[in-house]
């Protein structure tokens, strides 16, 4: 049974289950923090796409809209804004980590450095 689709915010533990789920539930992980933040630690398999890039919205709009995405930032705000932009662009399955990377770390979940 797959995880429900849509644009929503989930707790770090729920997101960990999404990442660690079965192959049909696999998602593309987008870290929308700066490159410096990313180098300090990130989620396994995360792709860094800096929210503050001048062409950020254009890059987001060019992504595959049929894929499942998990987005996050440091505290949750940039991730939430990214999720809202993706919804406006026609993405159907986007999840933001509630509280961002800081909440992920505070929950004791794995980080790649």
How do you describe this structure in short?
The chain has 113 residues and is an alpha/beta fold. It is built from five helices and five strands; from the N terminus they run βαβαβαβαβα.
Keywords:
34% helix; five-stranded parallel beta sheet; alpha/beta; 5 strands; Oxidized Rhodanese, domain 1; 5 helices; 17% strand; single chain; 113 residues; globular
Protein topology:
Elements (H helix, E strand, L loop, with lengths): L6 E4 L1 H8 L8 E4 L3 H5 L6 E3 L7 H6 L7 E4 L4 H12 L5 E4 L2 H7 L7
Parallel strand pairs: 1-5, 2-3, 2-4, 4-5
Molecular structure report:
- The protein has a single domain (7-106), classed as 3-Layer(aba) Sandwich (Oxidized Rhodanese, domain 1).
- The chain has 113 residues and is of the alpha/beta class.
- Strand 2, helix 2 (35-39) and strand 3 form a beta-alpha-beta unit.
- The termini are far apart.
- It has a five-stranded parallel β-sheet.
- The chain is globular, with a radius of gyration of 13 Å.
- The protein contains five helices and five strands; from the N terminus they run E-H-E-H-E-H-E-H-E-H.
**Helical stretch count?**
5
Strand content: 15-25%
Level of helix content? 25-40%
The CATH topology is Oxidized Rhodanese, domain 1
**Element pattern in H and E:** EHEHEHEHEH
Distance between the termini: 32 Å
Radius of gyration: 13 Å
Provide the CATH architecture. 3-Layer(aba) Sandwich
From the spread of the alpha carbons, the general shape counts as: globular
Indicate the low-confidence ranges by residue numbers. Answer: none
Overall tally of structural domains: 1
Class from secondary-structure proportions = alpha/beta
Quaternary arrangement of the chains shown? single chain
């Amino acid at each position: 049974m797959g995880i429900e689709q849509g644009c929503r915010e989930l707790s770090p533990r729920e997101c960990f289950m999404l990442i660690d789920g079965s192959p049909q539930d696999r998602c593309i992980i987008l870290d929308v923090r700066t490159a410096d933040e990313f180098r300090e630690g990130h989620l396994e398999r995360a792709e860094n796409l800096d929210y503050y890039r001048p062409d950020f919205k254009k890059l987001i709009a060019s992504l595959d809209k049929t894929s499942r995405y998990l987005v996050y930032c440091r505290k949750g705000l940039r991730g939430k804004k990214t999720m809202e932009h993706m919804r406006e662009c026609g993405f159907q399955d986007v999840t933001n980590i509630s509280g961002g990377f800081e909440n992920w770390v505070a929950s004791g979940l794995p980080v790649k450095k």
